[in-house]
Description:
The complex is a heterotrimer of chains A (343), B (238) and C (298).
Chain A: H1 2-32, H2 40-62, H3 77-90, H4 92-118, H5 126-136, H6 139-146, H7 148-151, E1 157-158, H8 170-194, H9 196-206, H10 208-213, H11 218-244, E2 246-247, H12 254-268, H13 273-292, H14 305-322
Antiparallel strand pairs in A: 1-2
Chain B: E1 3-14, E2 17-28, E3 32-36, H1 43-50, E4 55-63, E5 66-67, H2 73-76, E6 81-84, H3 96-103, H4 109-122, H5 139-152, E7 157-161, H6 169-185, E8 189-193, E9 206-211, E10 214-219, H7 221-226, H8 228-235
Parallel strand pairs in B: 3-8, 3-9, 6-7, 7-8
Antiparallel strand pairs in B: 1-2, 1-4, 4-5, 9-10
Chain C: H1 2-28, H2 35-53, H3 61-85, H4 90-119, E1 134-135, E2 138-139, H5 140-162, H6 164-174, H7 176-181, H8 186-207, H9 218-233, H10 240-262, H11 273-285, H12 289-297
Antiparallel strand pairs in C: 1-2
Helix pairs in contact in C: 1-5, 1-8, 1-9, 1-10, 2-3, 2-4, 2-8, 2-9, 3-4, 3-8, 5-6, 5-8, 6-8, 9-10, 9-11, 9-12, 10-12
Amino acid sequence: xxEQWLLFLVDLLAIFGxxxxxxxxxxxxxxxxxxxxxxxxxxxxxxxxxxxxxxVRMGMRLFHVxxxxxxxxxxxxxxxxxxxxxxxxxxxxxxxxxxxxxxLVAAAIGALLGFLSGYPAVRLGGDYLAIxxxxxxxxxxxxxxxxxxxxxxxxxxxxxxxxxxxxxxxFAVASLANCVMALGVWAYLSAIERSPMGRVLRAVRDNPDxxxxxxxxxxxxxxxxxxxxGTICSLAGAxxxxxxSGVAPSALGRFDWTFLPWVMVVxxxxxxxxxxxLGTFAFITLQKLIVSYKYALSFLPFDPVWLxxxxxxxxxxxILNFRPYGLIREKASYATKPNNMSM
Amino acid sequence: xxHLLRLNGLNAxxxxxxxxxxxxxxxxxGEAIAIxxxxxxxxxxxxxTIFRLADIFSGSITFDGKEIGHERPxxxxxxxxxxxxxxxxxxxxxxxxxxxxxxGFTLPxxxxxxxxxxxxxxxxxxxxxxxxxxxTLSGGERQMVALASALMSRPKLLLMDEPTTGxxxxxxxxxxxxxxxxxGEGHLSMLIxxxxxxxxxxxxxCCSLLVSGRMMLSGKPEDLLSRSDIMRTYLGLS
Amino acid sequence: xxxxxxxxxxxxxLGLMGFGLTLIRRTTGVWNVAxxxxxxxxxxxxxxxxASLAWNPYLTLPMAFLVCAALxxxxxxxxxxxxxARGASAILLLVVTIAISLVLTAAINIYSDYLQNVFHISAxxxxxxxxxxxxxxxxxxxxxxxxxLAIATGSYYIFLQYTRTGLALRAMVDQxxxxxxxxxxxxxxxxxxWCLAGGATGLAGCLLPLRFQCNPSIGTTMxxxxxxxxIFGGTDKMYGPLLAGIVLGFAQIYGIDLLSSWIGPQVIPxxxxxxxxxxxxxxxxxxxGLSGFSRQRG
Lengths: 343, 238, 298
């Protein structure tokens, strides 16, 4: 019984790390700069796709896997992966190299996606930008779900287990790595908060016209934030793929990877890292509990996953109505006060 | 004299911003009152409050014997009050004809056409651009349309926010003349916010000075003008 | 030939959906993400009535209109208006509509699960073409969808131009405060426009299963396209979404058909990328959309 709980906690922590990273990215974009990014799923998926495409090919070269299998990477995916994983077990340094390289590529892809998805509407700002990001967020899902050679179509592919070398502690190690990533992003955000850049971002958020009149290129700043945000989301996506050892386009939907982060951040408050932390923790726990007790709810004539949707929607509505700042408010900065009822 | 409009101890503002402090004012039937004061003193807020476009913290507004402080903005018009705002006082995308029709929104449908004719004979210049889109008109022409629209509903009280500001001297003169004509007819009460007291001197019966949200003094315009210390301090005039 | 019918039908339905979305945007300044779910609700009204009461699907049009109008109105009154009255920003309202979309998605799925598991109606994926009639050699859906579009937009035009309430609505869109001081009840007018928008979109949702495969997330997957229609059409004039619906509908179905005959059938699954491309191009080069174009030049 104790072991079950331990596994539950480790898994919780792993997903927590992923979501915290994602949510901090949202905080950077929404909380700092006032960009309502409803397309987080795009960069997240990008990172996951990189993890679905690159490591297996790297592994094949590095471990001299039978190259005849490369003729159909998707069909032979399972065989290739099992061979690579066997080698990865003995080769922690190779495994970490694959991880690092993948993360670097994922970061680059994320930056690119952030830029491309934001560019068309960044000058329009506000809700036009939000809608545009929402719509464009679907692009990778359409491509990935239909173009098989990429990540195997809707069913997806396996991903080499870069944590295989830790054997029995695989989940704990992977979980830890996710949290380290989240911590890194946390530190990055804190650094920005204290820096002059932080003030510039807040100015762009609260009063873009004033910021522009003071010589700040608002468009460029927003694009940079979108690029940075995309990079972070992409890293989270890649780490998620590594954690689950797989990539499946059908599981990378906007409910889980855009809307849920939004609920968490709005609930906890986009004004502080701590708020984001609390919001993330609260909803991850809630979600995990619902999933775990799914069978207890099987008396319902419908799939309990819809309870999740219902709950998230209602919680979001309640917060927006009564406490749009979320649980923890932003510390009022020196010059500007957050607008009542604005985001 | 029967007071048509009475503001009693009005405290008002926007959300948490307190603009008007304990403002009291009375306007009788057929009376024209000017509200003067420096910029930012709350003159527009005063007019806005009558239409509940600002929040009332305390105090009362009575019109024609009826307490209207709790009414929703769109209901206020039905009591017989019209508002000529300083900005956004015409519908730029609609032709003048429709602007007038909208002005008569509170009238029974069958009376609108006839009333348009009446208003056109009151504000003669508007007939010339009756078919044009309001957004294509000059400032002075727009103000005429705005005034005509405001008159459509047969108001007992007309609120005017700086009706001549920003207009060319000729246009300003025409508007002032119209206001004088309306005053002359005797049944329309007016509350006019105006920066420049001298412009509407001949029209108004009484003048109230609003400074930083407080009513400083009221009296006949000539009396106010003779107080050169006030003129200089608050109105920048000598 | 089949794809031409598909394209025409799809265009008409897209036009109706875009019309609803644009109407809400124009009158209340809200981009309503939950509008996708209104489409789905419309299709489920049809399914429910045809499967349980054996109604002819076209008879369900008025019901779909009423249900979706009521739903949309309810969403406005309960979800939108309270926080809009307190001065919420456009983005905050957008997030509210997303929250509502989540709730509606849950409700729709629960309902369809219920239909499927309890009443054994195939509610997870349905197509009602077999219930269609034929007129002049073509499926009835073709004629009805265009008739619905024509009637909806025509009557809306008449309402706007020739009735007092329509005048007040136009006034409210142009100068909301001025309209209010002249006696127009902005809240009632906004509610009315949400109801009309919901109803028009409900008609589209109702007709959708007569030609296209429907499922509980049909509306949710279409919302991105609906936004493309709205933005490409421009929110300046109400004929915008109509034009855009035609262009996009044709591009998506007929265009991809042509493309696949040149390049090969592998391009077909990517037809959903076409609205994205149009959206990006519009935002880059024509942000005011088709109906705003004349304003820029004039």
